[in-house]
Structure formats: C-alpha cells, structure tokens
Amino acid sequence: MDFPLELFINAVIAGVLLGGFYIAVTVGISISFGMLDIVNIAHPAFIILGCYIAYIVNSTFGLDPILVGILMLPVFYALGAAVYQVYYLSFEKRGQEALRGLAFFFGILFITEVGLILVFGVDYRYVEAPYIGPTIHFAFIDLPYRMLIPCVLSLVMLAVLELFLSRTFIGRAIKAVSQDQGALALMAANPVRIKRIAFGISIATASLAGAFLIIIQPIEPSVGREYIGRVFAIAVLGGLGSLPGTVIGAMLLGIVESITATFYGPSWAPAVAFGFLLLTLAFRPSGLLGR
Amino acid sequence: MAEPLLRIDQVGKRFGGFVALDGINLSVAPGERLGLIGPNGSGKSTLVNCICGTLQNDSGSVHFDGKLIDGMAAHQRTILGLARSFQLPRPFHSLSVAENLRVPLLYAVKARLGPAISPRELDAHCVEYLRLVGLDAKAGKRPRDLTQVEMRKLELARAIAAEPKLLIADESMAGLSHSEVEDILKLLIRLNERGITIILIEHIMSAVMSFSQRLAVLVSGKKIADGNPAEVVRNPEVEKAYLG
Amino acid sequence: MRSGLFTFLAIAVAALFFLGLRAVHNEYLFVAGYVVLQFVVLATAWNILGGYCGYVNFGSAAFFALGAYTTVFFHKAYPLPIPLLMALGAVVSGIAGLGMGYLTLRLRGAFFSIATLALAVVLQTLVVNWDYVGGSRGAYVIRPSSLDVFGLAVPYVQYLFVLMLGLVVLAIVTARTIERSRLGFGFATIRDDELAAEASGVPTLRLKLIATTISGALMGMAGAPLPYYIGYLQPSGAFGLEYAVNSIAMPMIGGTASWIGPLVGALLLGTIQEYARVTISSSVNLLIVGGLLVAFVIIAPNGLVGLVTQRLRARE
Fold this sequence. Notes:
By secondary structure, chain A is mostly helical. Chain A contains twelve helices and two strands. Chain A has a two-stranded antiparallel ribbon. In chain A, strand 1 and strand 2 (141-144) form a beta hairpin. The radius of gyration of chain A is 19 Å and the shape is globular. The mean pLDDT of chain A is 85. Chain C is mainly alpha-helical. Chain C has one domain (3-237). Chains in contact: A-C, B-C.
C-alpha cells in the first residue's frame, strides 16, 4: 500500500501549528479551572466574542486583528473581573458553585451565542490581513502564515504567563491560592482579590485567542461550542493547572485532529476532541502528567 | 495481643512528590482506647482517610475485623463497622438534625442487619443517639441553626449512629470549653464501656492522657512512639518533636 | 398523600386536561401542547439527577435524541407501535445513562458535567456519520393522519399528545416516589456532602448510577415519539442546544427541590417560549430562556417554588 507520507507529514505539521493555537485557547481554562477551580464552560463564548470584536474593528477600521486583540486585553480583563465578582457573590460565597455556578456559566455561554446570532446572523465572518493568504513552502511542507503566526504568538503568550506566574508577587499569589486559600489569607493577601485578578487574566487571554481564531478560520456563533470539548480535553489531558501540560495536551490534540480530518474527513473532527475527553476522564483523570 | 480489630501494616501514601504516610504499622485491640497525637501536618488525617476509605493507601495493607479492606469503598467499610467523625463538621445541610442521624441508620446499619431491624427500631435508635449527645431538643432544626459545639456533637453523633465496632473521633473537641470537653470524654468512655473500640485523635493533652489506654505518636508521616501513655509522653523523641 | 392516591389524581387531572382541550376544538393547542409536555418530562427527568443528586447534566439532548433515533432505526425495519418504541427508547437511553455514569461518576461533579457535554457531541457525530438512520441528510418518518380508536378517528397529533401526557404522569409519579423514599433520602445526602454520605454508609456510586439511568431512560422515552411528531428528523434538530438549555433552565427556574418545580418551570417557560416563537422569532425565545436562567440562578436560587415557600414560611 502506498502510504501517503507527504500528506501525513503535512497533517502532522498542520496539527502542531493547530496545537500551538489551541494553547492560546486553553490557557485561560488552565487558570480558571485548573487553578481557581471555577468551571467556566463559557470560556469559548468569550473567545468567540473576541473573534467578533476583531472582525468589527478590522472590517470598519482595517486594523490588524492581532492588534485589536491586544488593545482589547484590558476590556476583557475588566469583563472577567466583573463576571468573577458576580460569580463569587452569588455562588462561591454561598457554597453553591457546584450546581448553580455551572448553570450560570452555561447560561452565559448560551446568551452569548444566541445574542451573536441575533446581531450577526449565522453567516461566516472573516478578517483581512496581509499574512492570511501566503504560505511558506519547504520542499513538500506547507506552512501557511495564518496558522504559523497564531501558533508562534500563542507560545509567546504562554511564556509570558508562565513568567508572570512564577516571577511576580501576584503571579505567585495566584499559584498559592490554587493550593491553599487559608494559607494565603494568613499571608494578609485577600484571596478573593487574587482570584478576581486571575479570572480577569483568564478572560483576557480570550481576547487574543479570539483574534487568532478568526485569523485561522472564518467563524460563526456556534463555533464556540466545538471548542468547549477541545478546551477541557486539553486542560484535563495536560493535567489541570499545569501550563507545560497544556502545551503537550494541545499539541497531541492538534495532531490527532489534523490526521483524522486529513484521512477520514472533517466531519469526524469534533468527535476527536470530545472522545479524547471522555477517554481521559474515564481512565486517567489526573492527566498525562498526573498530579 | 489477640487478633486485633484493626491492623495497619506498612501503610504508605504519597501526594505527588510529598510522602504523607511512610510505612505506618499500628494495631488496635477490640475494646481498646487508643490515643493518636502528632503535630499538624504529621499525617493523622491522611491515616484516618486511608483507614476509612476516603483515600486509598498506595502501599501496605489495612485489615479490619480479620478482613483485608484495601480497595474497599468507604461506605462498605462503614457497613463493616468502621466509622469516623470529620475534623471539620460536614453535616447534611438540607436535612434536619434527626434526619442527619437517620442516614447512617438507614444505610449502614440497615445494610448490615437487613430484615433483622425494623423501621421502628431504627427510629428508636435515632432518638436514643440524639439524647446521648444532648441534641434531642434540636431534633427538628437544621444544622445551620446549631452552635459550633452542637455541630461537633452532631458530627460525633452521626458517626455513633452508624453503630460501629470501631469509632475514630477526629479532633471532636477543638475549641470546646473545659466542661464541654469533659462531656464528650464521658460520652466516649460510656461508648467504650458498651464495647466500642475508640481511636481518639486530639490536641488537648489532658483529654488524651485521661482517655487513652495506649498512645501512638505520628510525626512527618512516621510513627515514632506507641505504648503506655505515661511512658510515651516521657520519650525524648516525642518531647522534641511534639511537646517541646 | 399516599402514592396510589397521588397517581390516581394525576391520571384524573391529565384526563380532564385532555378532554378539556378536545372541547376547545383547536388543533394548534395539541401541537403546541405536545412540545410543552415534552419539556415537562425532560425537566422532571433532569431534576432527578440535577436537583436531587446535585449532578448537572449538559447532555440531555443526547439521551433525548437517542430515543428519537431508536425510533428511526426500528421504523426503517418495521414500524412498531409508539408505546413499544417508547419502551425501547427507555432501554437504549437508560443503558447509555448507565454507561456514561459508570465512566464518569467516580469523578467530581464538574468533570461529570463536562463529560455529559462531550457525550452529546460524540453521539451527535456518530449519528451524523451513520447513513442507516439518515446521517446529516436526516430521516423521514411518515405520520399517519389519524388513529382508529374504537371506531373513532382520533387525529394522530392528539394520539401523540395523549402518549406524552401519559409520560408526564409517569415522570412525575416516579420523581415524587423517589423523593419520598430511602433512595431520595440517599440522593439528598449525595447532593449535600458526598464524602460524608459515603462515610455514613451511603453507596454513592450505585445511587448515582440509578439516578443517571432513570433520568436517561425518561429522556429517551420523551424522544421516542419525536420522529412521528415532526415527520423529518435531523441531527442538528434532535441534538439541538435548546433541549440542553431548557432541561436545565426549567427546573432551576421552577425550583429543584421537588417534582413541582420542573412542572411549574416547564409549563411557564414552555408557554412563554411558544408564544415568543410564534410572535417574535425562535432565536429570541432562546435568549429569553438563557437570560431567565442566569437571572434566576443569581437572584432566586431556589426557583419560583422556593420563593413561594419562603413567602409562606415568613407568614407563619
């Protein structure tokens, strides 16, 4: 049998680039779910929101989508902080986050999607930027810029976050609060404030992730739903709260998805992530790196 | 000793790189009053969790009543006759005080005795245990309406209501006044006189000393002493690690 | 009130309701009513796992759609009477619930919830790629125009309506019986503090599996008549997000503590949505549901029934 090696290698490379992008998508959940124990299933909704904002500014003012993503960082941060405040007062404080907190985020996910449908309709939207068309060619290897740039920038974002978490006081406080809230309170740092900052950061990442997403592919409101499974699959696979684990999980998922789509067709792709998730949850819930 | 009720052989437990329990050997004879002390973080709660099945031990074995109970779910161990109270009370908030006690009666005791015990008898037992801890006046109240002390008594009562052979009381006296500590001690001794083996985990040394027939000391996941309370307390290692 | 008496009353009320609707001579009421009753079943079924045990299922659509596709599967081979199809739907979805529960219920509640989402998507993808049941093209099921009952020609829609009404009675009686039983007592301890429940001798895994199985089975039964109701079944419709949102929103808005909450929530929200769908658009009605869910979850966590009981208690 003639194994299509070139096709396979391209699929793997596409998967790596995709995986890089998936890091940006997942790092927010790594923080909110992995470190703060907040099951924010609405995270993909914030990402899609980032996509549409990038789309609006790009189509109205012609601004580069990544630039938009960066400019919107403080806005998304504030949004995240506000959402956390509501979440904390309504659920965490009362100890009801299990049932009602989940329902809350589910409601937000839903409202965002339906709201976007009402405003923008279900047509696919895309952005224009000089690097979206061209591709680098190395022998038989194709490296589309629109995949390469988000991949590289995602890794940069991850590195910046990792530095922040390990070098700055607030970053270390966030790591501390994920392990022992009581001890943090004793250190005279306010755990609620720390968590609010962390959650704000987690939502801020969605701004950039959204910009990357709409560069990679045209989007419409229900795209967010596919990402719920991907995001949690990667987070769980990589071991919750572990940023290096996120890299491994993201790459693995990206590669498997890419190979599946190339050889079996794209209609099976959503099942890959969710299937991964189910299998991981069933057999190794502490992730590949274990904790 | 003759066949111990609880036998812990070389039990180990680690969390990632942290070794919480390191080769613990411990035996408890039927009817004995064992005191277990150790500084915070020494692994006492982890040991209790491994004995009761809330956590599974990584190595070694736990035998209860002659049976190997490794791998058994916590509820099965309770049905076998092993009960514990939690360090921080964990009542069922949507149930009344009386209903809280009915849970172990309806599930653990009923599962153990089956048709041999009738609903009326279960109800009678429930009332008896409420009276035993002095909560009969609050039978219909919700846990959130109880004082701290009453919550601790409820926590202990719920473990008692499982009608265990071995009861592990995990720091049930923290924060209580002297007379309240006396009350709980008297209660535990009365239970012991009925034949219930008791492991008392406490920081209040006067209570531990007056209660225990035997004293074990845990430090950093290892057992460093085990024997007559008066002698253990004089052990220089114990003094250095804990009392010093 | 004893279970037997309650069941009798429930059937009596349902029968009166049906006869009352027949007297109005408006076919639309049956068409719309079917949808509302469907939601009552879904909400009640969801609540058995969600409200009683505290485990949030985001994949209600999966169990519902499994019931619908079981019907399509058998319909292609040999058209069976719908009550039998409902029983088959119960079996298939019940087993699915059991299987999924076994895979994920040993984990924390949050992981279970995420797994239910994953399951819904996996099942949808499988169905989309399975040509025998129509795949993404969909499947047609021809609905007869009427059913012969003792010489009387009952419009088929009314027949479906009665079946769903019967299922509502079954679901409510089941929920109420569970609430008052030792099983329901165990469910409440799982919801309140699972660790303490285990320590008290409650076999939590077994009880949770029972809950997922019963919940899944009821949802499957609700989905079984769907292909006959709409005539054309598409995966995106059967697995639609509106089933997931509504089965969560209705109990949470109505109240999760007892069987009354999901009933109230479903009747209220179902009617509002139908009205909005007809007068405004179907997207707006979903927005309303989502908005109400978030609002109620924040402001009135015990739902409408909770608000009412609070008022009554304050008066005492």
